[in-house]
Amino acid sequence: MSNLDIQKIREDFPILKRQVNGKPLIYLDNGATTQKPKLVIDAIMSYYTDMNSNVHRGVHYLSQISTDAFEVTRRKLQEFINAAHDYEVIITKGTTDSINLVATCYGREFVHAGDEIIVSAMEHHSNIVPWQMLCEERGATLKVIPMNEEGELDMEAYKALLNEKTKLVSVNYVSNALGTINPVREIIQLAHAQGVPVLLDAAQAVQHIKIDVQELDVDFLAFSGHKMYGPTGVGVLYGKAEWLNKIPPYQGGGDMIKDVTFEKTTYNELPFKFEAGTPNIEAGIALNAAIDYINDLGIENIKAYEDELLAYATEQLSTVEGIRFIGTAKEKSSVISFVVDGTHPYDIGVILDKLGIAVRTGHHCAQPVMDQFHIPGTVRASLAVYNTKEEIDALVAGVKRATAMLV
Length: 407
Prior knowledge:
This protein is an alpha/beta fold and about 400 residues long. About 40% of the residues lie in helices and about 15% in strands. The protein is built from 14 helices and 17 strands. The strands form five sheets. Strands 4-10-9-8-7-5-6 form a seven-stranded mixed beta sheet, sandwiched between helices. Helix 3 packs across helix 10 and helix 11 runs parallel beside helix 14 (about 390-405). It is globular. The protein starts with 5 loop residues before the first helix and ends with a helix. About 45% of the residues are buried.
């Protein structure tokens, strides 16, 4: 923790100075979205006051500087995840958009009747529903890697699921509902041994864990800007060039074409082949500032601090009578989900909100996870680099107060 000045970091986030219900805001819903440092907010303002123009199309000055700024972000993203080429970085609306792109385009080209897609039992709905839709459309089958009561994947079952019918494996790097860090290297290696490509949903990983797509040898990787201190409405799909060149475009429109006639359209080269229409320009440019912010702090420093905070929160919450943690994997990242005997998660969340403490309650877009544990939902506290032990203490006191009122 000595590597980071947390109080100085907190000064970078204007919203942390506000009050909620007359109490200082304690924001523990970072798995849903992180707050934004002033650096990012200023970048959005700068776009609209200094360079507002469309990108990739204009010869005039504002269009040129907007395009340059937008493409700087692409190159920064390439470095951030260590992609081999900047054209392997597709700018999308977010993780959901990225996964749907692969499901639609890869599925259209490579998935047929009788084929199989593998996901895991702990996926977010965004990494379940697109594959269900694809399987229904193509006559394929969705297979599910089971997990144990600790919230860890059954890797022996995964090995048994892989076969000559498997066309793609799509799993999360970190579970949004449980905090489990999955053994993604082993998942990828086992799939590749049978010639099967892998997509990683890194929405809950990229802000906590250093990701090197070449070291992982992953085929596709999806994540969102708004969960890594950046704006909403922008995200990334990384894809190996060999796959991106093999699959058809996602949408038709401006920028994804080279030539259009009524007889035939010739598609643009990567990455523009997958970027139809005007992008969320200001968000794309401001994402550059978010990456700079993470790089300045150091992703390893962030992880070390958050791991210590997670251990402290788990220890302190264990003192709550009747608490049951949902997701107790040995490898976890920045998420604590729990229920308390005799209470409903929603009721605890409402009482915590009255105390100025923001947590997430419900199924967290992971209903199959809740079904496995036979619960309607959990209280989820998800951590970021600006959270403190004092905030954890307030959370624990708030949960104890809530359970005293409810039980």
